[in-house]
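RECORD TYPE: inverse folding
INPUT: structure tokens
STRUCTURE:
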């Protein structure tokens, strides 16, 4: 008897129609308008490059022309293979060196050779040596590395110099970025100004 009643009470819900509400449910997150953001491009250089180059202890040490440098690439390879790789890298437009006394490592890049010649490389000035120039930004300062390495020993001397021409160009870019940021800041403040009296009135109530 109990089994018969249970069978009669069983209701199938598989055929009930699915109801799609046109309204969003209460727990669904509603899309929010994007918040205004002020984007400022991080400057590549410091405001007073020359002053930092002349006063910073690291720059002052690396600016000595007698500072010994050494090629650091492929240190796990045999000597002859390293010599060949160093010359190939130079012709491809890059190499790695380190200042021996301070342990400062630099990745140098320069104009690749075309037809055996490059304005940044000179294999002919001193037999068995290569003279290299490389321009880059270090710690927010435009500098030029100038040095000479022995093609046999893979060491030599080099120093950093302040690159006035590159610094002038980067200073102009920095000033332009600052002006753009200030203009965006003024525009942002102008857009926010109409809402400030309303916010003040709401606070007063």
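DESIGNED SEQUENCE:
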């Amino acid at each position: 008897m109990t089994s018969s009643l249970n069978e009669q009470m069983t209701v199938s819900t598989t055929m009930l129609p699915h109801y799609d509400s046109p309204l969003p449910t209460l727990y669904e997150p509603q899309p929010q308008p994007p918040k205004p953001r002020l984007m400022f491009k991080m400057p590549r250089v410091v405001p007073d490059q020359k002053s930092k180059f002349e006063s910073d202890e690291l720059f002052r040490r690396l600016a000595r022309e007698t500072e010994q440098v050494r090629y650091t690439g492929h240190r796990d390879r045999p000597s002859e293979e390293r010599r060949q790789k160093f010359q190939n890298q130079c012709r491809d437009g890059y190499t790695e060196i380190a200042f021996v006394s301070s342990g400062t490592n630099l990745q140098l890049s320069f104009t690749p050779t075309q037809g055996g010649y490059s304005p940044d490389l000179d294999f002919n000035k001193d037999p068995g040596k290569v003279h290299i120039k490389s321009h880059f930004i270090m710690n927010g300062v435009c500098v030029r590395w100038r040095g000479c390495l022995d093609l046999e020993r893979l060491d030599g001397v080099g120093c950093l110099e302040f690159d006035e021409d590159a610094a002038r160009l980067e200073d102009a870019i920095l000033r332009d970025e600052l002006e753009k940021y200030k203009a965006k800041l003024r525009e942002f403040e102008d857009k926010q100004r109409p809402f400030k009296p309303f916010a003040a009135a709401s606070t007063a109530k």
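NOTES: The radius of gyration is 34 Å.
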